[in-house]
Amino acid sequence: MSARRPSGKQQDRRRKITELVMAEGTMRIDDLVETVGASAMTVYRDLADLESQGLVHRNRGYVSAASSLLYEAASEYRLQQNTSEKEEIAQAAAELIEPGQALVLDDSTTGVYLARLLPERAPLTVVTNHRGVFGELAGASGISLICVGGDYLPWADAFVGGMALDALRNLRVDLAIMSVSAVTDGICCYPQQEMVQIKKAMLASARRRVLYVDHTKFRRRALHAVAPVEDFDVVIVDSRTTSADIEVLRDRGARVEQAGNARSAVPSTKGAGRA
């Protein structure tokens, strides 16, 4: 039997707990109980759920944020973070899509925001391994929808594994649009190898490649490399991304488009990553 979905109040409380722990790094659970204002039993239940999602670790009365090198936050949590930035870069990505194209979207929660804009670009064929994207587009007029199945990862709300890889390797699309957990020295990275394989297969299936990342990705680190930024035809960043971070991308040869200032974006003099 599937677990019951947490109520809105539970989700808000767990989101607050996660934000507090991530801000502090490590906290005494007793202090967390006092700050949240819920019973100790309730907070311990919340922490058990957050730990199962790979967001926190508990040890001898303390709770710590999970290492971003090894874990990606649960999809449900990520969906509520940096929403204005996600909307901004999703809108910029939507402007690159033409009616009649086939595109593949990965497990990134920004894809959910992009999916909400796609009916305006119909007709389209959309391939995805993310249930959130699928849910947004199921039944949408003018959208031919292909869900890549396989082994289901609850924390990602997405499918991975051999079946998913085989399906992607047999597809050819016009456009792959994706995000990553971190961009370090111009290298796109992600914590889990199984999702890295999916992202690489998506890139290999596409004629053109688009990366969209908000400014927080440049302050994070993750374990596995997906691709260098110059392998993408366009890199979309949000309006809060610093000029220094943009310059690193351009120095590697990436064509960078800053959302909110898209038309003034200047490609690197070294050229775009792919023809």
Summarize it.
With 275 residues, the chain is an alpha/beta fold.
What can you see in these coordinates?
The chain is α/β, with parallel strands linked by helices. The chain folds into two domains: 8-66, Winged helix-like DNA-binding domain superfamily/Winged helix DNA-binding domain (Arc Repressor Mutant, subunit A, Orthogonal Bundle); 82-264, Translation initiation factor eif-2b, domain 2 (Rossmann fold, 3-Layer(aba) Sandwich). It is 36% helix and 23% strand. The longest helix has 17 residues, at 8-24. Helix 1 (8-24) packs across helix 3 (40-52) and helix 8 packs parallel to helix 9. One of its GO terms (molecular function) is DNA-binding transcription factor activity.
Q: Descriptors for this entry?
A:
single chain; about 280 residues; alpha/beta; Arc Repressor Mutant, subunit A; seven-stranded parallel beta sheet; three-stranded antiparallel beta sheet; 10 helices; globular; WH_DNA-bd_sf
The CATH homology group name of the largest domain: Translation initiation factor eif-2b, domain 2
Please describe the biggest sheet, giving its number of strands, its sense, and whether it closes into a barrel.
Answer: 7 strands, parallel
- CATH structural architecture of the largest domain: 3-Layer(aba) Sandwich
**Sequence of strands across the biggest β-sheet:** 6-5-4-9-12-14-15
Radius of gyration, in angstroms, nearest whole number? 19 Å
Overall mean pLDDT: 88
State the CATH topology of the largest domain. Answer: Rossmann fold
Could you give the count of β-strands? 15
Give the count of helical stretches: 10
Classify the helix fraction into a percent range.
25-40%
Q: How many discrete domains?
A: 2
The end-to-end span amounts to 49 Å
* Proportion of residues in β-strands: 15-25%
Name the structural class.
Answer: alpha/beta
Uncertain stretches: 262-275
Helix-strand pattern: HEHHEEHHEHEHEEEHEEEHEEEHE
CATH uppermost class of the largest domain: Alpha Beta
